[in-house]
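step=predict obj=DUF2314 domain-containing protein n=255
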Amino acid sequence: MDNHITIEVDDKFIYNLYKASSTLWYFDQLIAGGFTGYNSIKFKDKNDVFVWLENIEIEGKYYKGVLAETGQPEIVLRKESVDWLLIDNQRLIGGYTIRHYYNMLSEDERVNFEIYCGYRIDHGNDFFRPDRSTPEGAIITLENFYNENNMEGILSCKDFYLEAENVMQEHNMDWDSEIHSKVVSVLRVSLLEDLENKGFPNFETIERMFNLIERRKDQELIEETLYYPDGFITVNKFWVGLTKDNGWKVLNLVE
């Protein structure tokens, strides 16, 4: 793995580091399950240089492997990992710092870079934990409940109070508690009627790629791109809000 590429540190790069950290659990799960393909984690060595550690074994709070450049054995604290990658069927999974660099290249440069790396770099698949500890995880949790036709679970991922505030703000409506209560009711009923009329959407065979579009107080606008097995692609943008006691909740869809 080449450690000598220059990466522009910007908001997108910082978000990619966040994605790497938030999806590391998936890497750990596969390694613990005996994944036999190429695998590696990235960390900063004693010379403050970011390097890759290959052929990972997990030993408690440590990663054990060999350095990509030298082949020397090394043991690293798991919390020091800043990125991870797997190669599955000649396809890059994870590798968020590599993806960031790849996306900075021209089309011709991307082709040459893939040839140099020896694997395919596509949209990827973001494996956030399916829980409400992150905005992206809240969206995945909601979609999993859709897969199960679990209405109680679906409603647990929503916060119609916050969503109504957003709707009123987007329509430049002055605050009025009575109107707000009506909007809350309309949003809830609309969701229930929509599911009754159209049925529950299914996300079981899709791949996901997330982007952070905007951030404001206790809310993030998350773009989710869905890739279906037949090649169909959809893009949705959701406001996701952080609640006081129940983690992140999925709010209104932004057209």
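step=describe
The longest strand covers residues 50-59.
step=end
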